[in-house]
Amino acid sequence: LILPVEGTPKGTSCDSVKLAIETGYRHFDGALVYFNEHEVGQAIREKIADGTVKREDIFYCGKLWNTFHPPDLVRPALERTLKTLQLDYVDLYIVEMPTAFKPGDTFFPKDENGKHIYHETDLRATWEALEACKDAGLVKSLGVSNFNKRQLELILNKPGLKHKPVSNQVECHPYFTQPKLMEYCKQHDIVIVGYSPLGTSRDASWVNLKCPPLLEDELLVSVGKKYNKTTAQVALRFNLQRGVVVIPKSFSPARIKENFQIFDFSLSEAEMKAIEGLNKNIRFVELLMWSDHPEYPFHDDY
């Protein structure tokens, strides 16, 4: 279950996480910049306290934001997340974007003309600081997000690499199936975690609306009818069968439960092929506002 950005009413995140844990979810995808880690931590702690789960049953992923890439800022950023969650460790900590921003008190630093202020990126140095966090026991595993093949290779070929990235969190759904990146990651034992597995909101301020709404796709609708499932359940099942970890975002109690009900049916090989054929190679999440960053990941083919 992925927990989205700020803007949700107070208490919603906490209630949603508690319901999700009761429903059977164990993987929670969070981040400092979602501004709700205090609620997520509270929900996890309450469900541990009432005996529903143990800490080791929960898999929490936190993220290193763009303003914390300099090596000396990496551990303090992780410690800030741990303090907010009130947990001793996170299970996975990932570099949220390969694009560094100017360090400081603001997450989205801009100059007087409203232009984002970037910072020189040294992904290898950032990675070494993360390795030290793992060695210190603050995190069990390390990963990345929105990295292309070249950026993954920078880490994998780093002299003296101690801990390789276990995962790469990227956009992945039937309209954007990531075949080349998936193949590359498979060769290197890197798990793909698919964000926006159901497409995204239709918010023109950050979503590419050239791509039609995924959940209205005729093929997904017809496959759903066959199994008495929703298009969302079909889209999630599709990724699951390809070995992609899915993190659907929801605050609706009914949908939180519905998104979990994908283990009682499976898609045939022909259906998998047909859904793969929906790939348009178009991203919903292009992040074009940062496309002039030297490490913007999406100029490359994959």
TrEMBL record:
A GO BP term, please?
A: bile acid biosynthetic process
**InterPro entries, from UniProt?**
AKR, AKR1D1, Aldo/ket_reductase_CS, NAD(P)_OxRdtase_dom_sf, NADP_OxRdtase_dom
Positions of the record's site feature: Lowers pKa of active site Tyr? K63
Enzyme active site: Y34
| SUPFAM superfamilies linked | NAD(P)-linked oxidoreductase
Q: Where is the NADP-dependent oxidoreductase domain?
A: 12-279
Q: Which Pfam families match?
A: Aldo_ket_red
For this UniProt entry, the molecular function terms from Gene Ontology, in alphabetical order, are: Delta4-3-oxosteroid 5beta-reductase activity
Q: Which family does it belong to?
A: Belongs to the aldo/keto reductase family.
- What this protein is called in its record is NADP-dependent oxidoreductase domain-containing protein
- This protein's gene is called LOC115595426
